[in-house]
Amino acid sequence: MIVAPKLPARLSCSAIAIAFALAGCAVGPDFKRPAAPEASSYSPKPMPDTTTSAAVLAGEAQHFNPQADIPFDWWTLFQSPQINSLIQRAFNANPDVESAQAALRQAQESVIAQQGFFYPTVSASYSPSRNKLAGNMGGNSPGIQGNGTIVQTYANPAGPVFNGPTYYNFHVAQLTVGYVPDVFGLNRRQVESAKAQLAAQKLQLEATYITLAANVVAAAIQEASVRAQIAALERIVAINQESLGILRNQAKLGYVSGMEVAAQEFSLASAEQALIPLQKQLEQTRNLIRALAGNLPNEDVAETFDLASLHLPQELPLSLPSRIVEQRPDVRAAEEQMHYASAQAGVAIANTLPQFAIAAGVGGMATTPDWMFRTGGGFFNLAASVSQTIFDGGTLHARSRAAGQALIQAGAQYRSTVITALQNVADTLVTIQSDADLLKAAAKTGLAAQTMFDLSRKQYQAGQIDYLTQLVAEQNFQLATLNLVQAQTNRLGDTAALYQALGGGWWNRPAADATRTTTPDTQSQAAASSGVPPTSSANGEHVQ
Q1: pLDDT tens track for 290-328
Q2: Is there a domain that residue 366 lies in?
Q3: What values do phi and psi take at 270, rounded to 5?
Q4: Residues whose CB falls within 8 Å of the CB of residue 437, separated by 6 or more in sequence, listed in order
Q5: Within-domain flag for 365
Q6: Does any domain span residue 138?
Q7: Which has more confidence, 536 or 508?
């Protein structure tokens, strides 16, 4: 049995202390958060802070308040209990939320797993064996001492003779300790990259909630709009049917020509044709609502929606561009991807530097278990190693350069995400102003059409016009109603789009509600209570 020479305790402790002392730096770039955009508005020219108004449903003027914060449950501002209950059900049952939550937990476990490399690995092994020595190996049966040492003796002084095989047992038990000092910060950069991915997954989960809520609100508004359009179009179909009946009777009496009857038949067929896509759209919208709630197509939801039950928020938040980079989950996630790329650049550099390792083992061996740790049966070993790649065809250095380019790419993608986010907000603001003007114009058209219909009805009652002329006036009024419904729908949808474009208020999530995502740290709770989105530090943790 070969036993490793015992090192002086002072020397071994000194070697370990030196290794720990070396583990004090981390190579590679230290991540710094990008500066916030310097833009102070969303347009080169001044933008009005109040929209136009109209004296119709969803026609209130909306005022933009840069000081207003976005509530987490911004959808409640539409004052629809049906929307509130449906969003709550979607949060609890939608599989996209469950998938994002699982991805977050996976990222959390990946951080814990990577942090485990900071500690030594300890393993224990026990190897019992049954052995046979051939009898022709040059001697008589070996003698086995109590401590497990095999001693060969010869009964015949003249030389070895074949004396048959020998059987014996052998037991080895060992405790092994291995440690890789993080001399150049390789593992610290790995942990940093894992934390960046964890932060990105947290933001992805928030984005899932925001998108889901926005989709539910949009689907609810769409259903209300389609129902109102169907009601108006069904009345138009009824008017055309009634008009066609009158014209056919007049044609029999010779008062109108067949051309006029054919023209009315064409109008009726066109109205009936226009009704079919709306009915299809209503069914598809209901299917969408069921899916968002986590239901199968045959599992209906009790909530239904109409425009009269929806309230248009009159005060809208308007975060400055410098705040958008804090509030938008997609921008924050792009920042964490840049943080990840920065950490990976450090990993690539550390892989080109020497690698250190320390290993130690202690145990015992003997032919019987009770002799393994008696005098003569114990053993130990202590080893340290340093390795450095001398030649690899340029692989490691090429990977380091590639990691540097990946960091440049992540920075460019971050800037692109910021520009797209600001454009999204700018487009939404323009749309809100434009659709407010469009609703005002549609309201004027609708008011004129209603006035014409009211006058025609009075004239018909007074015998000044025929019934067919009154039906034409009513049809024009219903057509104007269709346009008005579309304009009202746009205003409600634009408002929901603005809340989503500004970040959805996830930083104002109530503390009691935070368990839906993950247990927030103390700093994140403080940020939530203050209404200010938490920022990210260089190591991926949230700081206020």
Answers
A1: 999 999 999 999 999 999 999 999 999 999 999 999 999
A2: yes
A3: -65, -40
A4: 51, 52
A5: yes
A6: yes
A7: 508
* CB-CB neighbours of 431 under 10 Å: 17
Q: How many residues does the chain have?
A: 544
Whole-number average pLDDT of the chain = 86
Looking only at the bridges linking them, the beta strands covering 166-179 and 63-65 are unpaired
Distance CA 491, CA 494 (A): 5
Nearest CA to 535 out of 75, 9, 33 is that of 33
**Any domain includes 371:** yes
With a cut of 70, say whether residue 263 has pLDDT above it: yes
Angle, helices 186-253 vs 467-501, to 10°: value is: 180
How far, in Å, CA of 377 to CA of 7, rounded? 18
Looking at per-residue pLDDT, the higher value among 165 and 255 belongs to: 255
Span 487-509, average pLDDT? 96
User: pTM to 2 decimals?
Assistant: 0.83
Number of domains into which the chain is organized:
1
CA dist 340 and 347 (Å) reads 10
Say yes or no to pLDDT of 160 above 90: no
* Secondary structure of 92-161 as H, E, C letters: HHCHHHHHHHHHHHHHHHHHHHHHHHHCCEEEEEEEEEEEEECCCCCCCCCEECCCCCEECCCCCCCCCC
Residues 462-491, mean pLDDT to the nearest whole number: 91
Question: Domain residues for 125?
Answer: 1-30+120-180+354-387
Contacts of 62 (CB under 8 A, 6+ apart): 50, 51, 312, 313, 314, 315, 316, 432, 436, 495
Comparing C-alpha atoms, which of 68, 46, 63, 74 is closest to residue 432?
63
Cα–Cα nearest to 543, from 203, 535, 197: 535
Please write the tens of the pLDDT for every residue from 385-408: 999 999 999 999 999 999 999 999
Intra-chain end-to-end CA distance of the chain, in Å: 62
Q: Answer yes or no: are the C-beta atoms of 346 and 29 closer than 8 Å.
A: yes
Question: Which conformational region is residue 540 in: left (phi greater than 0), alpha (psi within -120 to 50 degrees), or beta?
Answer: left
Question: Quick one: pLDDT at residue 11?
Answer: 37
Tokens of 437: 């003007």
In this prediction, residues 269-274 reach a mean pLDDT of 94
Q: Which residue, 263, 339, 283, is CA-closest to 540?
A: 339
Please, what's the b/e burial string for 437-446 (b: 16 or more CB within 10 A of its CB; e: otherwise)?
ebbbebbebb
Q: What is the pLDDT of residue 162?
A: 55
- Residue type for 505, please? G
